[in-house]
Amino acid sequence: MADLLNPADPAFARDPYPYYARLRARGPAARVDLANGTHAWLVTGYREARAVLADPRFSNVPPKAAGRPRPDSPARRAQACLARHMLNSDAPDHTRLRRLTAAAFTPRRVDALRPRIARLAAGLAGDLAARLERDGSADLVDAFAFPLPVLVIGEVLGVPEADRADLREWTYRVGSPADALAPGAMDAAWTALHAYFTALIADKRRAPGDDLFSSLVHDAREGGLTDGELLAMAFLLLFAGYETTMNLLASAVLLLLTHPGELSTARRDTGGRRWDAVAEEALRHASPLEGTTWRRTTEEVDLGGGAVIPAGSSVLVVLAAANRDPGRFPEPDAFRPGRYLPGPERAAAHVAFGHGPHFCLGARLARLEAAVALPLLFDALPGLRLAADPGLLPYRPGLLVRGPRELPVTR
Ligand code: HEM
After folding, report:
1. CA of 242 to the centre of ligand 1 (A)
2. Tens digit of pLDDT for each residue in 375-387?
3. Which residue spans adopt a coiled-coil conformation according to this UniProt entry (predicted)?
4. Is the CB of 295 under 6 A from ligand 1?
5. DSSP states of 324-390 as a string?
């Protein structure tokens, strides 16, 4: 029997790894009692994580009566509509949505964003430098790691620059615990996002741009996605792409500032291979998505090692734990970008972007953002230093996403 898990505990949020290591030592998957009175199966072994993510007996469709509010208000209807996206679906619906979206998300289109990402990152790094000059210290999450992914998704969706601050605010609100906001603020954000994307689709239909979302809208006219599916897709791209990438950038900066030797090695490299390795190792070591979305078993599944998961169970694949499985990664708790340099010694692929049919559609874009933004940041601010004790930084509670909520820095 594992100890009771309280995902809201700030100490667990900051460092969940000792708990996951204890759990893994008992078997690759374990039934865990959660502090809210429910229970779930947590998969912590690397091999088993990949097996579950590729197994159709683990469904992504949220159960109808999972305590979700009934769509009885405009905000609830908007929320229900935006949640009908491919990450919440199984084959064959998922296969069709994924095929149509992947056709727009080509490597060529993603790579074409490089100069725009560089321009946005350089602008934010310049603003941060000016703020540090003026105020002495600033929060790197607020000034850099948070705005950059939202601005980049703005490019993907072809959203006018003037609207991006609104998107940033609404997305922040719908991802926050309701009790952390003013009454009604979250409902207003759901309704605003729904209205905004409805108008955006109509705009793109009238006047397609050269953005990726325009090609999705255009494909829709030729028997592709329906309007409802487009709406949910816009929301998924915004939501899946921002907090994850924000956590990657913030965690990578934190790891580099606390491992100055690795930072100077990366800074000396002009070919970019070392920065790519930093991003890969940060993804493994500080997995931005701590767990995947919830799965539910459609029948009893024997995962081996004594883990027999009954039908109808809630299952969470803990990517952060699988990526620290000592059976797969020697010295898993050490931050060593060198393990991801090309060559015969290269470490196993991490599962930070998931595995199987739902493997992250934005992986190439996220890697590109990190590879462009990190060197630009340290070029603009070569003397960047932490202005807080790294062991005391606050982390967002919960099992889904992980990264520092604040990263006070100085120069
Ligand atoms: C560091 C950044 C990112 C990480 C760590 C990450 C991680 C993941 C993971 C683990 C999944 C699978 C979840 C599951 O199986 O339950 C996923 C799915 C997805 N991600 Fe990402 N992601 C990142 C950035 C992005 C970006 C930038 C975009 C888009 C612009 C994006 C779009 C998606 C989409 C659309 C899916 C659903 C795919 C499907 O259901 O087939 N992600 N991501």
Report:
1. 10
2. 999 999 999 999 9
3. none
4. no
5. T-TTTSSSTTS--GGGGSSSTTPPPPP-TT--GGG--TTHHHHHHHHHHHHHHHHHH-TT-EE-S-G
